Amino acid sequence: MVVFRLGRTNELMVRDPGLRFLVPIIDRPVKVDVREQFIEVPSQTTITRDNAPINVDFLIYWRISDPLKSVVNVVNFPGALQGVATTTLRAVIGDILLDEVLSKREQINEVLRVKLDEVTERWGGKVTTVEIREITPPRDVQDAMNRQLSAERTRRAVITESEGSRQAAINVAEGQKQAEILKAEGDRQAAINRAEGFSEALTRIFQAASGIDQKTMA
After folding, report:
1. What is the rounded CA–CA span in Å between residue 84 and residue 80?
2. Residue range(s) occupied by CATH 3.30.479.30 in the chain
3. Residue 208 and residue 218: Cα distance in Å, rounded?
């Protein structure tokens, strides 16, 4: 709260929140809200450095840092802030190319915040945050962006489909490879079994022949 005594005030007349005693008729209090607030700047048409008209709307978060200045140096702080914000926006956007405006929103937010904070300091204000909500480019630029997005989606779909086909071919080839390996393993095992069977048969024949020879000699 800022107290005017007989129409005059100074830093000693700034009161903290709470119960305060005032002299009737002589003292006139002016309440000052020091909480953080915001204003909504409606859509503004600005021109980029490459002469592209765009519409921009944004929010400004601010608070009063010096109650005395906010009462003495400006009549309507929110209104003054909104007015200087529109001119500052045009100046900032006018120095940037359209592509940069669309891709560097965070940097633009910070530039606006710094410039607005410098201006409003003399009014006892502090700009804490600037948030661009929407940037609307010209219709032809929007159409070009939509075509680019459509082409990108088509490209990704083609890549996904080709990747799926490639993976399917790999799976088929891998399956055939495994089948051939299993078949070869089966053939090898069958050959081993046949060889072992033949060897065992020869052994039995040899043993039988040996028995016959021993009986003949006896």
Report:
1. 6
2. 33-137
3. 16
Nearest Cα neighbor of 119 from 161, 191, 60, 177 is 60
The side-by-side arrangement of strands in the sheet containing 125-136 is 37-47, 53-64, 125-136
Give 89's contacts (C-beta < 8 A, 6+ positions apart): 41, 44, 46, 56, 58, 112
* pTM of the predicted protein model: 0.60
26-70 pLDDT, tens digit per residue, is 777 778 788 899 999 988 889 989 888 889 999 999 998 888 888
Here the tokens at position 33 are 């809200």
CATH superfamily of domain region 33-137: Band 7 domain (3.30.479.30)
